[in-house]
Write a structure and sequence with these properties.
The protein is α+β, with helices and mostly antiparallel strands and 200 residues long. The chain has ten helices and four strands, in the order βααβαααααααββα. The longest helix has 20 residues.
């Protein structure tokens, strides 16, 4: 089998559409495996990237659009009323990056926010979620401090990422579509990458 291709996915735990993408990509697991694609989830601070305000009410067209996307892609969601502070959850994700517990942390945080209706910015909430997975925060938080999140956000901005989720398929591809459309988009990227590697 050809070597695996790493596909970066920029995300923010506060984003409803990122949660929807997470669920859609779960459904695509076998297809991604067949294509030889490994997703590399890369957190960023959407507030720093977009200028939105933490704690601001998410209402009107923004809310309607997120709920429409979730409905069209058949993802049940409890959308927060305000933009949550996701920075500390991202710091833990960065500390766990490329390790066996990173995926479990993403799943736990997203399910807590968008299925259980919990606020990850609330005092003590990160500790409770970490305890669910027996993660020792004292051992990981120093490695995943907010300066690293800031650097990840700056790097995403340099790569012309303007929102989340964003996939890097030779260019920043934002948003999420149905699995069939995503597979076609990813397959085009895979085919280009394979041609480049073979020197065609």
């Amino acid at each position: 089998m050809a070597s695996r291709l790493i596909l970066p996915v920029h995300y923010d735990f506060s984003s409803t559409i990122c949660f929807v993408a997470h669920r859609v990509l779960e459904r695509m697991h076998d297809q991604l495996e067949e294509m030889g694609v490994e997703l590399r989830w890369r957190p960023l601070d959407l507030v720093a990237l977009s200028g939105w305000r933490r704690g601001a009410e998410v209402a009107g067209p923004r809310r309607d659009n997120a709920l429409r996307v979730a409905s069209e892609l058949d993802v049940a969601v409890r959308m927060p009323a305000v933009l949550l502070d996701s920075r500390r959850a991202h710091a833990v994700a960065l500390a766990l990056a490329d390790g066996p517990r990173e995926a479990a942390w993403r799943e736990r945080v997203w399910s807590a926010v968008f299925e259980e209706g919990r606020d990850i910015g609330e005092e003590g909430e990160i500790e409770r979620l970490a305890a669910d997975l027996t993660i020792d925060l004292r051992a990981v938080e120093g490695a995943g401090d907010l300066a690293r999140l800031e650097a990840e956000t700056d790097a995403a901005r340099e790569a012309e990422v303007t929102g989340v989720p964003t996939f890097h398929v030779g260019f920043p591809l934002g948003g999420i579509q149905d699995p069939h459309t995503m597979k076609l988009l990813f397959q085009r990227w895979v085919d280009r990458q394979r041609r480049v590697r073979s020197g065609e």
